[in-house]
Amino acid sequence: MGVLKAKGVVYRPVDEVDLGPESDEFYLHPEVKAPRMAGLVVKVFAWCLELPILGGILLYFLKRNNLIHKLVSFADIQEPPLFVPSHPYEGIVEKEVKCIDSELSPPQKVQHAFDCIQSSLENVPKNIPPLNFRRWTILDYAKAYTSRETTPTMVAHRFIACVQDSSSPKMKMSFFINYNVEDILTQAAESTLRYERGEPISVLDGVPVAVKDEIDCMPYPTTGGTKWMHKVRQCNKDACCVNRLRSCGAIIVGKTNMHELGAGISGINPHYGAARNPYDKSKITGGSSSGSAAVVAAGLCPIALGVDGGGSVRLPAALCGVVGFKPTFARVPLDGVLPINYTVGMIGILAATVEDSLIAYAAMAGNLVPSDHFGISVPKIDLPLLKSANYTSTDVKIAKYGKWFDDCSDDIRICCSNAVAELSSKYGWKTVDVTIPEIEVMRLSHYLTIGSECSQSIATYLDKSKEELGWDVRVGLSVYGSFHSHEYLNAQKIRNRQLRFHQKIFSIADVIVTPTVGVTAYTIGDDSLKTGELDYVNGAALVRFQIAGNFLGLPAVTIPIGYNKSGLPIGLQFIGKPWSESMLIYIASAMQALCITECKKPEVFYDLLAKE
User: Fold this and answer.
1) Whether 337 contacts 345, CB under 8 Å
2) Which of 21, 235, 316, 488 is the most buried if burial means most Cβ atoms within 10 Å?
3) Is the pTM of this model over 0.85?
4) Using 50, 70 and 90 to split pLDDT, how confident is the model at 33?
5) Which residue, among 82, 136, 58, has the nearest Cα to 491 in the 3D structure?
6) What residues are annotated to the active site?
C-alpha cells in the first residue's frame, strides 16, 4: 500500500497555536464516510473485513477515507507521546468546600457529603410540588425509611415487580442483564433490621443501586455485554467501587445492560436486547452504559454505576434525561472493572440529581488500590457546600468554543445556548470565547486508542469467542485490530498536544461548556435487534463533545436542561480541570436549580416510594 500512502498533516508546535476567539484554526466538522449497516448487510461486511486480503484493502480505505491516515497515522507531530492521562495535583484552592481525608471510611465520607447538602433529614422536601415532576432521591429514600413510611424490604419487593414488568413481552425495556431476587431480598431484610434498630449505616442504607455489567459485583458473573466473557474471566469479589457502596448499606440490585464490550454507543445489544429509552420506547438510550442510564430515568434507582470510556456515562445520561458524572482519571479506583479501555475508561455515576451524584462520588472516591498501578498520587477530596451555596457570589468563568458548541442539531443548540445565557443573567457568570484546535483529530486519536486497548485486552480470547460476538462488534474489532504501533504512538502525541491546549484554556477559565451530544436519541431499527448496528454518522455526532473527558482524563458532568420538539431530553456538559470535582458539582447544581422545575415525567416510570 506504500504507493497509496496518504500525506500526513504537519502540526505546528503547541506554543505557536492561537487559542483566542479570533484564531485562524480551522474547525473541521466530522465527515464520516461509512453507511449505516445492520442485519444481513453488517454480516456480509464483517465477513469481508475478516478475509485476509480483501479485509486489509477495505480497512485501508476505511481509515484513509475517514482521515485517520492524514490526521493521525502519518502526521508529523513534534510533541512526545503521553500514554496515561495522569495529572499532578497543583494545589487548587476552592472556596465554599469541605475538604475530607481520602482515608476516611465510605460511610464517613457519605456523612460529610450529606452534611454539605442538608442539615438533617427533616429538611428533605416531603411532597412533590403541584404540576411538577421529580425523581426520588437518595435522601427521599433515607427519610422514608427513618420515618417508617416504608422499609427497604417493601421497596425491594416493589422494585422486583417493576423490573419484571419492564422485562415483559409488552415492554421489552431490557434494562438488566442479570438480577437475583433472593439476593436483593436478603440485602433488603438486613437493611430493614438496621432501620428497626435505629442504626442505619448511612443515608445510602437500603437505597437501590444498579451496576453496569462491566463492573464486578457479587453474586453475578461479569459479562461485559457478551455471551462469553464470564466463561474466561471469573468474578470472585466486588469491584472496589461496589464494595465501597455496599459498605454504606446500599442494596446492589443487579447488573445493567450495556453495549457489547462497550464497543458502541447505541445500547443495542443483540444478546440481551436493545435497552430502550424511558422517554420513548422506540428510541435508543445511548451507551455503552445504556441500562444504567435507563433505570435511573425510569425511577428504579436514584443512582447507578457506569464506565465512561468514550462518553459512555454522559452520553446515555443526556439521552435519558438524568445526571451523568465522571471524575478525574484515577479519582475512583478501577479495580474490578473489565480492563478493556484502561487509559480512557473511568467509573462514572448516573443519578437522579446532582446531589445524588455527590453522595455516590463521596462513597467511592479515595485512595487507589494496589492493582491500579499508575503511580498517581490522589489528592484529598473536596465536597461543595451546596446547602449554603450563593451562586451569585461566585465569579465563575466558562470557556466556550462557538464553532464546536454550535455543531449540533438546532433544538440542542438553541436549548444549550439559552441555558448558558441564563447562567450569565441569573448568576453573573462570565463566558470566555476560546478556540480549541484539532477537535476532530482528538476524536480520531481517541478512537484509535480505545480501539487498540480493547483489541489488545481480548485478543487471546477472539479465536474461541469470535462466533459468539455481535456482528457490529466483529466489524469494530476488525478495525481496532488494524491499528499499528506507529499510529498508536501518534495518537498519544495528539493526547499530549490536546492536554497542553486544555491547560492553557483552564488558565483563563474554570470550566469548558458544550452540549453533551450533537443529536437526541434516534429510533431503534428492527433490523438491528439481532445483529447490532453500525451507524458511524450518528455515532460521531453523539460523541462529538465527549472525548476530552476520556482521552485527557478530565472530570465532566452532564445535566438535563430541556427537551426537543418531540419531548426527548437534552443535556448540557461542563468539563473541568483535573481534580476539580467540587467546582464541577457546584456549577452543575447551579444549572440544575434553573432547570429542575421543567423536568418531565418519562413515558416509562416506576414510583418505588408511592403510597399504597
Assistant:
1) yes
2) 316
3) yes
4) confident
5) 82
6) 212, 288, 312
Sheet with 569-576, edge to edge strand ranges: 176-178, 251-256, 208-212, 303-308, 346-351, 323-326, 556-563, 569-576, 511-515, 397-400, 430-433
Task: Report the Cα–Cα distance between both ends of the chain, in Å, rounded.
Answer: 70
Relative to beta strand 533-534, strand 37-38 is: antiparallel
Q: Identify the pLDDT of residue 121.
A: 73
What sign has the CA pseudo-torsion 523, 525, 529, 534? Answer: negative
Q: Are 551 and 449 in contact (CB under 8 A)?
A: yes
Mapped onto helix, strand or coil, the DSSP state of residue 274 is: strand
Q: pLDDT tens-digit profile of 6-21?
A: 789 999 999 999 999 9
476: which residues sit within 8 A by CB, 6+ positions away?
263, 264, 451, 534
Q: What is the DSSP letter of 568?
A: -
Residues in CB range of 188: below 8 A, 6 or more apart:
151, 152, 153, 155, 156, 206, 251
Residue length, the chain?
612
Q: Could you tell me if 262 and 224 are in contact, meaning their C-beta atoms sit under 8 angstroms apart?
A: yes
Classify the phi-psi angles of 103: left when phi > 0, otherwise alpha if psi is within -120 to 50, otherwise beta. Answer: alpha
Q: What is the pLDDT of residues 516-574, one digit of tens each?
A: 999 999 999 999 999 999 999 999 999 999 999 999 999 999 999 999 999 999 999 99
Torsional class of 255: left (φ above 0), alpha (ψ -120 to 50), beta (otherwise): beta
Instruction: Locate all alpha helices (DSSP H) within 306-377, ordered by sequence.
Output: 314-320, 354-364
The mean pLDDT of 496-516, rounded to a whole number, is 98
What is the reported pLDDT for 3? Answer: 54
User: Amino acid identity, residue 296?
Assistant: V
Residue type, 377: S
Q: Report the candidate in 475, 558, 479, 562 with the shortest Cα–Cα distance to residue 512.
A: 558
Average pLDDT, the chain: 94
- Looking from the CA of 333 toward its CB, the CA atoms found within 13 Å total 22
C-alpha cell at 521: 436519541
